[in-house]
Amino acid sequence: xxxxVYSPQSNLHLMYKLSxxxxxxxxxxxxxxxxxxxxxxxxxxxxxxxTDSKSVLETVRDHCNNSNNYLIPAIKALIYKAEYKGTYxxxxxxxxxxxxxxxxMHFSRNFITTLNRLRSNHFNLNSSLSRKNIIVDxxxxxxxxxxxxxxxxxxxxLTEQFADPLRLALLEQDESNYSDLVTHALQHPSAKICxxxxxxxxxxxxxx
Length: 208
Prior knowledge:
InterPro entries: RNaseH-like_sf (IPR012337), RNaseH_domain (IPR002156), RNaseH_sf (IPR036397). By secondary structure, the chain is mainly alpha-helical. The chain contains ten helices and two strands; from the N terminus they run E-E-H-H-H-H-H-H-H-H-H-H.
């Protein structure tokens, strides 16, 4: 039994040898999983997976995994990664857990929403809004070409006075650059860091 992935645009033709006990269904699932994995790793912006296995597509679409195939949840996770969260979240924050990262924290819903937006790299700053085609111009009103989270915390003269407490707390970490400082702080955020991020958001009146 075998499985294959073929992409004429990428000149890609991969073949996989599977166990002789594998079913045709499993072969189709394996091919779809690898096609998605290859596309995400190559950061292909638009892709379409073509398969003639209606049963696999229906299982992926359904909430339940009636086939009990272990790759179906993996395929769903990859699709979710591609469509909603993006690679930043999955590369830095995603873990397979029955509990969310904030389950032990007693914060309000708005508080958690703000932190989740920052962790998913989708927030109310021009660089993110432009990336989602909500606005055209990603620049900051201070004339920086990109208004992103790193800029407003560390570089923007318009938010400098509001960012001081958060910036000082981030700089206490042992990281080599600003991006790593923010990512590391959001991976396992302390209650203090959470409050500083949300406080900065409110002070800037941005509603991240």
